[in-house]
Structure formats: structure tokens, C-alpha cells
Design a protein that fits this description.
This protein has helices at about 5-60, 60-70, 75-100, 100-125, 125-150, 155-165, 165-180, 185-190, 190-220, 220-235, 240-250, 260-285, 295-300, 305-320, 325-350, 350-380. With about 375 residues, it is mostly helical.
Length: about 375
Amino acid sequence: MDIRNKKIIDISSIGIADLLSAGIAGIFWFYIASILGPENYGEITYLLTIATLASGISLLGSKYTLMVYSAKKIEIQSTLFLLSSVVGFVSSIIIFFYFMDLGLSLLVLGYIVLTLVTADLLGKKLYKTYSKYVIIQKILMVILGIGFYYVMKEPGIILGISLSYLPLIKEMIHRFKDTKINFKLLVEKKNFFLNNFALNITGTLHSSLDKLIIVPLLGFTILGNYSLGFQFYAIIALLPTLSVKYLLAQDATGIPNKKLKKIMILSSIGIALLGSTIAPMIIGEVFPKFENAEEIIRIISFGIIPNTINNAYLLPKFWALEKNKFMLATSSLVLIIQIIGIVILGPIYGAMGIAISFVISSSMGTGFGLIIDKTYNKILKT
């Protein structure tokens, strides 16, 4: 098989899996939104965001460390698996006693297992195995989430989702057996690992902070509207998500994929325009109770363009070079601008103001990243 055909098959494997999983997840969450209404949907989103934040902190930067070093055949898997699992277990206990919700504490662990296993699979370019697990997890999420809802109401949704990650534990145990625990190696790579940890924190806050701030500022109903709009964004934002999953391991092994990156970035413009025009019409027809969601998706769709540039070009390049300190600077700037935007625009324009702050912060962060990249290239030439 020639390189071009293999590349098409690899991208297709990830693309089809992500498309199917996003479609399944989208249908699931749209159904949940339709039966819960804006306020209860906002409450569920708030709890899921707590779990996302707790798992993001517990991962300690393992995700991209795994993707890069697995691609480079550096055996650090068991060390990172153990470290993240221990911290995650402590986080889940804290979450349980604070919220008194078993499903929520298990969900923290589920997110951690998913992230560790898929990061390792993508780093090793085991795209078919990756595809199998993400699709199985989404199917189980629908079956268990809806099934438990009709038994336990809202808490059953979270419990069902948390149990959908169980099949991944087998793969995680298998990875543990393949490599030895070696903290000395982690110490040798501490700068890269710690930068990834800080980067993971800022990235997690960037994706979670808006939802956490909406509740005290505007309430659960507005969060429900915002979350539905963001769910549409998650579906149409498959391109930037796919970009980094495929290209990071490629860049880490010296395969630049310049033409593919240009195609992805250009495609994001068309997707943003479609998302901004078609998605609001769908929301208005299908979800009449979610009055503010139409304007939110109309604005937030344009965040796809800077995020695709970031994920297709900047992230793979800087991580492959182990220059994640550049991404840390960019991610920190994004977070600062987002916080300022939410505080200023949120009280004035509500959820739309928060959507605007998301797009502005993403755009400015990517612009700053491109400036760093251009400066770094000039330094290399001299």
C-alpha cells in the first residue's frame, strides 16, 4: 500500500469514527434536551462541566505527552496511567463527598480512562482500534444514559454515561502490561510534561469556564440554551478535532502534511458559514423552548476557523518539536481574554456575550500563536 492510500485510510478511520460518535452523541443530547427543557438541561451541563474540569486537572498533562511519546516509541504509558489514575481516584472521592453523586464521581474516572487510552492509540497510529472504542462508548452512552434516566431521572443520565466507559478499562490494563513504570523517564521529560500540565489546565478552563460562570451570572436556563448551541458547535467542529488527532502523531514522526493542513483550514471557513446559517434554523424548528440558542450558534460557529488553524497547524507542529511552552503562552492568553470577555460582555448581552467572548479569545489566541510561529521560524533561519 502506498503512502497516499494509507493516509486516506487512516484519516477515514478517524473521520468516520468521529463523525459517527458525534452524530450518536448529538442525537442523544438533543433528545435529552427535548425531554428536560432548558433549565434541567442546564443543570446536567453544569455537573458534566464539573466532571470535565476535575478529570482535566487529574490528567496532569498526560494526554498530549502520551500522543507525542507513543508516536516516538518512548514507553511512558504505564507511568502516566498510574499517576493520572491515582490523582483521578482522589478527585472522584472529593467530588462524591461534595455532591453526594456516585455517577458524577465515576464520570470523572471515565473521562480519564477515555483520554488516556485514546491518546495512546492515536499516538501509536492504531486508528481502527481507536475508532472501535469511541463508537462502542457512544452506543453504550445512549443505551445506558436513556435507560437509567427512565429509572432514576436526571441522576441516571450521568450514571449511565459514566458506565459507558467500562470497555476501555480492558485496553488500559493491556497498556499497563506492555510497559514498565519508570518515574525516572518522567523526571527526564519533566519540562515537557509540566508544560503540558499547565497547558491542559488552561485548555480545560477555556472549554469549561464559560459554562461555570453562566450559572451565577445568568442561571441554569441560560446555560441550557448556551449548551444546546454549543452541542451544535461540537458537531460542526469535527474538523479541528479530527485535525489534531491525526496530524499530531504525523508531525511527531516527521510527516508534515502541508497540503492536507491547507485543505482543512480552507474547509473550516465553509463549515463556519454553514453552521451560522443552517444550524439556527434547525434549532428554531426543533427546539422552540430554547429561545436564545439560535443566536448563540450563529455566533459561536465562527470559532471553528481559528480552532482549525490552531489544531491543524500550530498544535501538531509545536508538540512534535516539544515546544509546548509556545502553546502554553497562547492558551494562557486565550483564557485571560475569555475571562475578561465573559465578565464584560456576559452581564450586558447574556449568553450571546459569552459566545462572542469565546470566538474573540479563540481568534486572538490563534493570531498570537501564528506570530510566535513566524518569530520562531525566523530564529531558526538565522
